[in-house]
Design goal:
alpha/beta; Rossmann fold; eight-stranded mixed β-sheet; 42% helix; AB_hydrolase_1; hydrolase activity; hydrolase
């Protein structure tokens, strides 16, 4: 069962499962702990996993004041401290991977290793235009279902759309009782459009695995590779037949690859 923990000035909704080396999971745009369900179920026999709802998503409120990646990275650090974790393997996807980068830069002592799925150092013109399209789509779509059907075109593979996986995800989102407001989604998205870690990524000392989806039209492999090239000794891999969120589409493959990386890094002190 999840619970709110006091993290800085926020009550942040968290889910903790399993025993073993500590892992922090950071979600992307509007995503809640449920986005990591395949990892919470599939890795709990080997790891102590903590997932949480970012500010303005799910069961964590969006406070007044500026929203920035730096603030959300501080939230993640506060979650670790509130749960008594001195250092964790950190995994983030999409916007959550950018928060994870900033967490490693601002609170490096808390980060044992990094897994960055579908990431970038700075949005290029294409990705920035896509983000602005989502900003418009969330308001213009005639229904929540219509928004999800169109947004998910760029998130999941054609395979997942054709085999019913995406429809299942849509039904789960529609039934979820803790809806994110349009304004909160836009504020979250805006925090990433001009965020740039290019000059600072070489400062990251944590062992890092960068994963790209070969079919991802948004955080394309060349953007992910740019991150791997900037972080010393980072490992870069492309899941050729996957899109933006392979940890949901092929969770066993993703979990196995990440588990191997974490085992190679070791649990730390």
């Amino acid at each position: 069962m999840g619970q709110h923990v006091r993290a800085g000035e926020l009550e942040i909704w968290t889910e903790e499962v399993g025993r073993g080396p500590d892992v922090l999971l950071i979600g992307g745009l509007g995503d809640t702990v449920e986005s990591w369900q395949f990892q919470l179920d599939g890795l709990a026999d080997r790891y102590h996993l903590i997932a949480f709802d970012n500010r303005g998503a799910g069961r964590t409120a969006m406070p007044d004041g500026p929203v920035s990646v730096e603030v959300m990275a501080d939230d993640a650090a506060d979650v670790l401290r509130a749960t008594g974790v001195a250092s964790a393997h950190v995994a983030g996807f999409s916007g959550g991977s950018i928060i994870a980068q900033e967490l490693a830069l601002r609170h490096g002592e808390l980060v044992r290793s990094l897994v960055l799925q579908s990431t970038w150092p700075v949005m290029d013109a294409y990705l920035r235009s896509w983000a602005r399209f989502v900003h418009w789509l969330v308001e213009a779509a005639p229904s929540e279902r219509a928004f999800l059907e169109n947004f998910f075109l760029d998130i999941y593979t054609a395979r997942a759309h054709n085999n019913g996986t995406v429809e299942k995800f849509i039904e789960e989102v529609l039934a979820f009782p803790h809806k994110q407001s349009t304004e909160d989604l836009r504020r979250f998205l805006d925090a990433f459009i001009d965020h740039d870690t290019t000059d600072r990524l070489p400062q990251i000392a944590a062992p890092t695995l960068v994963l790209a989806g070969g079919l991802d039209p948004t955080a394309r492999p060349q953007l992910c590779r740019a991150v791997a090239d900037l972080i010393p000794n980072a490992v870069f891999e492309v899941l050729e037949q996957e899109s933006h969120q392979p940890f949901q589409e092929v969770p066993e493959e993703w979990n196995s690859r990440v588990d191997a990386f974490w085992r190679n890094v070791g649990p730390g002190s």
